[in-house]
Design brief:
Domain Cyclic nucleotide-binding: 15-135
Distance between the termini: 44 Å
CATH superfamily of the largest domain: Jelly Rolls
GO molecular function, one term: DNA binding
InterPro entries: cNMP-bd_CS (IPR018488), cNMP-bd_dom (IPR000595), cNMP-bd_dom_sf (IPR018490), Env_Response_Regulators (IPR050397), HTH_CRP (IPR012318), RmlC-like_jellyroll (IPR014710), WH-like_DNA-bd_sf (IPR036388), WH_DNA-bd_sf (IPR036390)
Domain HTH crp-type: 149-221
Largest sheet: 4 strands, antiparallel
Number of helices: 7
Strand content: 15-25%
Organism: Paracoccus denitrificans (strain Pd 1222)
């Protein structure tokens, strides 16, 4: 098992923040903790969807494969986030496979427990609805990126999102445990060679610094699209 970052408490999960201690204790006793090593399959597409999982530490990838065997990454699920609730609410099988991108600690909660909470705890119901709406917005934005932006622009948008998710747009902020070039390519819908070329261009422009185990955003403002829809890259 890889070294873990801090494991979130149940009360730190956005869906459960502010719930009474006795309700949290009931969730904890009715759920189970799971550990996954890097690269381990957590959920397979087509399985029954009878539970929701929360990421307490680590990162998870939601993926699907084309008929030709190409992997498509739909999203990266960060600590504090949930997955599997769509199948619980719809009664449909899992629509995506989930893999641990890093070593993970997960909390698996039965679907009946979640739906019971949604019935009795209005804040849980509201949090689930808000999460589903946000996911729709994210998917809409991704479709727009895939249809309207080239590889470099999609990479810039991805790096900008990652910067915001990891604390903001402070110059020089280091991305912890960055994805490989192949993983980035799967996330933004490109091939590894094109991502490597785009990263090299951003590096030459001084916008990023990268190495085998790190990636640092030196000029986060340069990742923000200008009025023409393209970022300001000195090497253009």
């Amino acid at each position: 098992m890889e070294n873990m970052t801090k494991i979130m408490d149940l009360a730190d999960l956005p869906w459960f923040a502010g719930l009474p201690d006795e309700v949290l204790a009931g969730i904890e006793s009715g759920s189970r903790r799971r550990h996954a090593d890097r690269g381990q399959l957590i959920i397979e597409r087509g399985e029954p969807g009878d539970s929701v999982l929360f990421v307490l530490s680590g990162h998870v990838l939601a993926v699907q494969w084309t008929r030709s065997g190409r992997e498509i990454v739909y999203s990266e699920i960060a600590p504090g986030s949930a997955f599997g609730e769509l199948s619980v609410l719809s009664g449909m099988p899992r629509s995506l496979s989930l893999y641990a991108r890093t070593a993970c600690v997960l909390l698996e909660t039965p679907g009946t427990l979640l739906t019971g909470l949604m019935d009795t705890q209005p804040q849980v119901r509201q949090a689930v609805i808000q999460d589903l709406v946000r996911r729709i917005h994210d998917l809409t934005e991704r479709v727009q990126e895939l249809t309207a932006l080239d590889v470099e622009e999609r990479l810039r948008a991805y790096l900008l999102r990652v910067s915001l998710e990891h604390g903001g747009l402070e110059p020089g902020r280091r991305m912890p445990d960055p994805p490989t070039h192949a993983e980035m390519a799967n996330i933004i819908g490109a091939n590894r060679e094109a991502v490597s070329r785009a990263l090299a261009k951003l590096s030459r422009a001084g916008i990023i610094e990268s190495g085998r185990k790190y990636l640092r955003i030196m000029q986060p403002d340069a990742l923000i699209p200008d009025d023409t829809g393209r970022g300001d890259c000195p090497s253009r």
